[in-house]
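Predict fold of DinB-like domain-containing protein; 167 aa.
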Amino acid sequence: MSPPTNKAELLEMMECGYTAFEAFLAPLSEAQLTESGVSGDWSLKDILVHLATWQGRAAQILEAAQRNEQPQLTPSIKTDEEVDQFNHATFAANRSRPPVEVKQDFHASYQQILAATEALSEEDLFDPGHFAWMKGNALWTVAKGDTFGHYDEHKPTIEAWLARQRF
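Predicted 3D structure, encoded as tokens:
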């Protein structure tokens, strides 16, 4: 898939990615959503928590950009090890949440990142030098990385797990 070249393309890619991922998950039962082992100990529900959490963090970055501020996320995550620690802590903190609640959070976090993206200008999103704290990267990569890019990262693992199941 070619990267977006403007805001309209980015928004379309976000919408298409979200809609496709939702459609992919829609026929799955609660048993399928809560069965561990999809990715390590994670269930599909745990992957949705993970995706929702990262969508929420990305939305906070985009919202800070709207205010022309450098994001101040807690915890601050700079290394792969810190990413792994954050993911593990998120998994542990949300393990017992019901699937319906997790799905609602996934939807709400997507709406949050979509609204934050819509509120930014094309220059904000596509000029790699616009925000010094992005260190030469265009802001649209944040939206991609935690929406359709992130779904695409996890979908093959989910598909492989589903192919092995006998639900």
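Residues 40-161 form a domain with the Four Helix Bundle (Hemerythrin (Met), subunit A) fold (CATH 1.20.120.450).
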